[in-house]
Design goal:
With 187 residues, the chain is α/β, with parallel strands linked by helices. 44% of the residues lie in helices and 21% in strands. The chain has a domain of 125 residues: Thiamin diphosphate (ThDP)-binding fold, Pyr/PP domains (Rossmann fold).
Length: 187
């Protein structure tokens, strides 16, 4: 098991011009670790990060889109995995932080958290390149595939919460934040 913030810090060191779609706790960690205009923060309805990321990937097939999702959020929209598989975007990466709880809502446990295998669900939905990563060393070894391999790519990241990150909802929901992303993404 690895800390989410340590895992995302490794990714932050390697990201260049990829669009990052992050949701809830992963979004707050990501904003602290890698503040940049190509961050699309997906907060407001659990489960929408994968759908938003897919739309962005289809709209800009020349730009890699990486979704930083949570297991609780993905549970709200498992059907998005089949939609991703059907669309088959080669520039799409879906990283799911698996900690077994709805962390944004008080860390209430997910139903059957110990039994759910998100990589198997993604594979069953038709995404061929799937896997589960349990350690920082494994994640570091996978970063080349995540950043340059042909998608869609799905990885379940077995994480624990890391250092607390500021939950700046005014920034996330701010019009300026959206405009900066739009300008950077459409260049």
């Amino acid at each position: 098991m690895m800390r989410r913030d340590e895992c995302l810090a490794l990714l932050a060191k390697r990201v260049r011009d990829e669009a990052i779609v992050a949701t809830y706790q992963a979004a707050f960690d990501w904003m602290r670790l890698a503040p940049r205009d190509l961050n699309y923060v997906s907060i407001g309805a659990m489960g929408i990060a994968s759908s938003h990321g897919l739309g962005l990937a289809l709209g800009r097939p020349d730009k890699r889109v990486i979704v930083l999702d949570g297991d609780g959020s993905l549970m709200m929209n498992l059907g998005s995995l089949a939609t991703v598989a059907d669309a088959n975007p080669t520039n799409f990466v879906h990283l799911v932080c698996v900690n077994g709880v709805y962390e944004a809502n008080g860390s209430h446990p997910l139903p059957s958290a110990a039994k759910v295998d998100f990589a198997a669900i993604a594979k069953g939905a038709g995404i061929a390149n799937t896997g589960t990563i349990e350690t920082l060393a494994e994640f570091e070894a996978e970063l080349d595939t995540i950043l340059t391999g042909e998608g869609p790519i799905f990885r379940a990241l077995m994480v624990t919460a890391g250092a607390p990150s500021k939950q700046d909802y005014a920034f996330i929901h701010g019009a300026e934040t959206r405009e900066r992303f739009k300008a950077a993404f459409t260049r």
